[in-house]
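Format notes (please read before filing issues)

Several people have asked whether sequences and structure tokens are stored in separate files. They are not. Every record keeps both together, in the order shown below: the sequence lines, then the token lines. Line labels are part of the format and must not be stripped during preprocessing.
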Amino acid sequence: MTPFAARGLWWLGGLLLWLAMAPATLAQTGNPAHDALTARPEAERRQIILQALRSVGQGCGSVARLYPAGMDARRSAYWDVRCADGGQWRIRLPAERFAQPSLQRCGAGAPPPQGGPCFQAVAAAPAAARTTAAPRPTAPPPGARFGAIYTTDQPRAAFGFANGRTDRLAVNLSALRACEGMAEGAPCQFRGEIINQCAALAFALTRNPREVLRDHRTQAQNLGTTGQGSTQAEAEAAALEACRLADREGGNCRIMAAGC
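Then the structure lines:
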């Protein structure tokens, strides 16, 4: 399964996350992204998918057909798309929150349900497989206080941090917009949700305080780490310890944001 490029991945995954958290009447399948997409009018669903395809460089003039193919044993949902120009795709929406959607051309060599022919219902999982499916997400306790952390994959010290609010959607939007305001056009990625905890974000900075180091092991993400705890001091200590363990270039680990 070929993952979306980071730009389109964030666009589709982030939009569906916000829709899933919005106060709407959604089906409860255990897959928030699928439920959010299902709850939208057909025309809006097609527009969401069209923009996702275009954002990863797939030419599609308009969506001629959008088909919900069903779910697999892990409650990943599959949506098949036919563009007016004949291109056909299968989109996989994982059940886990903030997990990355993925895209596969219909008829590709990947095994079903990711690959193979589209516009056919995904075969129901056998009973044995259903027993090992991922559990449905546990609802947060009443009155929970939420936070969110966003950073950019680009080597710059851009981040968004917000914590301690009861509005889950608002705290995500606040953190995301703060990151985008610092990122100078680079896309911001979700780094973690905070529920009823203090949290901190640390960066391993280079000599330029606006730049951060990259992780040798992935060459893909900023060397930024997070920590959580019952107090702000505990959260900062956890974030700094993780940063020092991960830093292989001698960067200076600093707390960039923290709060309860």
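For reference, the curators noted about this record: The first strand starts at residue 2 and ends at 3. Confidence is low (pLDDT under 50) at residues 1-11, 22-26, 125-136, 216-221.
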